[in-house]
Amino acid sequence: MRILKTFTSKHFKIKKISNGIYAAIDQLGGGSFSNSGIIDLGDQTIIFDTFNTPQAAKDLRDAAEVLIGKQITYVINSHWHGDHIRGNQIFEDCHILATQKTKELMDAIHPERIQQQQNTIEQLTSYILTLEGECEKEDNEEKKQLLIQKISQLKEIEHTLPSLRLVTPSVTFTENYTLKGTRREIQVVSFGGGHTSSDLFLYLPQDNLIFAGDLLTVQNHPFLRDGNPEEWVSIIDKMVTLSFDKIVPGHGVIGSKTDLIILKEYILKLIEFGRNKDEALKEEIQQFYHDWNAGEILQMNFEYMLSRS
User: What is the DSSP letter of 2?
Assistant: First the structure.
C-alpha cells in the first residue's frame, strides 16, 4: 500500500501540481506573506522563493524533506522584495540563485532596512498591543477577522526580527539559467524588470508550468511602485507565448494564462489613468477590482502612476 506523504504548516498550504512539484500557498496570518515552490529534479530538490520569515522558511524546508526526501541544492529568488527572500538564512548551505541585479538590490536595500526594523522592535510591539485593543472593541466580524490576521502576521515579524539576517545569492546570471536533473529540466528566465528592476520566473516546459513570482498576482492588487509598468506589460506578452497550462503566482491561487492577461489589462488601465488623470477611469478601476485582495495597494498604485506623469 502506497503511503501519501503530506505536510501541514500554519504558514502555508501545500498544493500538489504534479508528481514531484508542489506549490506552497500563503496562509493569511502566518509568516510566509507570499507563495513558494518545491520542485523535484530527480537527483536534487529546488526551492523557489523563501517567504518573509525564517520560521516559515524552516517549515518550507521541512516540507521539501518530507515530500521529496532529497538534498536541496538550489534556492531561487524571484526578485529582491523581502516577502520572497527573508527566509534565505534557512538555506544558507544551498546555492542561492538570482539575477545579478537582484543581488545588487538586496545588498543595497536590505541591510539598512533590517537594522532599522530591529532597532524599532519596541514600537512594533506597542503597535501590536494597540491593534489588540482595537480588536477587542470591534463589533464588525469581518473587520475583526482582518485585525486578527494582521496582528498574527505582525507577531510573526516581531518574533523573527532579533535573529533575522540577510543572506544574498551566491550564484547570479543575467537572462537565462538552466538546471538539469535526472527527472526534469527547469529554465530560470529573466526578461528584465517589470514588477521590480529585475524579475525572474521558473519555467518547466516538460510540465507545462510556470512559477511566476510577483510577475503574476491572482485576484490580488500588484505592487507597481518598484518597477516599470510598461516593461511589465512587455514581459507578460513574452510569457504568454510560452507553452504552459498552470502558473503559480507570487500572491493568490494557482492560475492559468488567462490570469496573466487579466493582470496585463489591470496594468494597462493604471497606465492610462496615470497619463490622463481620468477620475472616471479611476472610479471604474475601483469598482471593477473591488473584490481583489490587498486593496490598500490600489491607492498606492494610483499615487505612483500620477507621480510618474
Answer: P
Band (1; pLDDT cuts 50, 70, 90):
very low
Only one residue has cell 507545462, namely: 208
Provide, rounded to the nearest whole percent, the portion of the chain with pLDDT above 70. Answer: 98
Q: What are phi and psi of 211, to 5 degrees?
A: -100, 115
How many CB atoms sit inside 10 A of residue 196's CB? 23
Helix (H, G, I), strand (E, B) or coil at 129: helix
What does pTM read for this prediction? 0.95
How is residue 122 written as a grid cell? 519596541
Write out the three cell numbers for 94: 544551498
In this structure, are strands 36-40 and 21-26 parallel, antiparallel, or unpaired?
Answer: antiparallel
**Given the DSSP bridges, would you call strands 21-26 and 12-18 parallel, antiparallel or unpaired?**
antiparallel
Q: How many CB atoms lie within 10 A of CB 25?
A: 19
Give the distance, in angstroms, between the CA of residue 139 and the centroid of all CA atoms in the same chain.
33
